[in-house]
Amino acid sequence: MAGVLQRAYLLAYNGISFAGWAWILTRTIQTLVAGVPPSGLYAVVGHDLRHVQTLAAFEIVHALLGLVKSPLFTTTTQVFSRLLIVWVTLHTYTAAAVQEHWSFTTLVFAWSITECIRYAFYGLAQIDLKPFLLVWLRYTSFYPLYPLGVFSETSLIWHSLPFLAEQAGQLWVFAMYGILATYPPGLYMLYTYMIKQRRKVLGGKPAAGVKVKKH
């Protein structure tokens, strides 16, 4: 019974998260197609992005309670790095020049596409569905999307530093320099891990042979 409830909860969590990110992606595309310049995108999706991303804090609790097999440290650092972007860099200590920077647009695309794939993948895993196209996207889309996401995050942090110094002080700036220094090794570790996982999961085997963890 506990297992059924756990799977039902994770199915609901992943479904809600997928819907949130799909909404962000849809609104972004609609906004840009309507002729709004990238500099105006934050005004449209910034509020929703902040709250959809904050929902991911539950994933730290999931890892802590053992509901998923994700490492607690890795999950915590990934979630907090994004919360830092949406709550500090883009919201609390920021300026219009940061919110309107073109890298916010690339950030939204990198995050929303990645998360739509990830949450759909893990949500369907709760009911033992593993469409090959979705599995392939999960273990292939990271090639362009992870570097794009990291580039966008670091670009926004870098451009926010002068405003951060004015509003919060140099101590915050030094802390941000330290955080920026963690991005290259962090990307390397995550990228190489996903490459290994891709070989393990895909590896030329048919879709029926794919084993999916119920995240």
UniProtKB/TrEMBL annotation:
Q: Which PANTHER family match?
A: VERY-LONG-CHAIN (3R)-3-HYDROXYACYL-COA DEHYDRATASE (PTHR11035:SF3)
GO MF: very-long-chain (3R)-3-hydroxyacyl-CoA dehydratase activity
User: According to its UniProt entry, what is the function of this protein?
Assistant: Catalyzes the third of the four reactions of the long-chain fatty acids elongation cycle. This endoplasmic reticulum-bound enzymatic process, allows the addition of two carbons to the chain of long- and very long-chain fatty acids/VLCFAs per cycle. This enzyme catalyzes the dehydration of the 3-hydroxyacyl-CoA intermediate into trans-2,3-enoyl-CoA, within each cycle of fatty acid elongation. Thereby, it participates to the production of VLCFAs of different chain lengths that are involved in multiple biological processes as precursors of membrane lipids and lipid mediators.
Tell me where in or outside the cell this protein is found.
Answer: Endoplasmic reticulum membrane; Membrane
Q: What is this protein called?
A: Very-long-chain (3R)-3-hydroxyacyl-CoA dehydratase
Entry keyword annotation includes Transcription: no
Q: Which organism is it from?
A: Allomyces macrogynus (strain ATCC 38327)
Major subcellular site? endoplasmic reticulum
Its GO CC terms? endoplasmic reticulum membrane
Recorded metabolic or biological pathway in which this protein acts:
Lipid metabolism; fatty acid biosynthesis
Q: TM segments?
A: 79-96, 102-121, 133-151, 171-191
Reactions catalysed, as given in the entry: a very-long-chain (3R)-3-hydroxyacyl-CoA = a very-long-chain (2E)-enoyl-CoA + H2O
Which keywords does the record carry?
A: Endoplasmic reticulum, Fatty acid biosynthesis, Fatty acid metabolism, Lipid biosynthesis, Lipid metabolism, Lyase, Membrane, Transmembrane, Transmembrane helix
- Per UniProt, what is one Pfam family of this protein? PTPLA
Q: What is its EC number?
A: 4.2.1.134
Name the domain of life this protein comes from: Eukaryota
InterPro entries xref list: Tyr_Pase-like_PTPLA
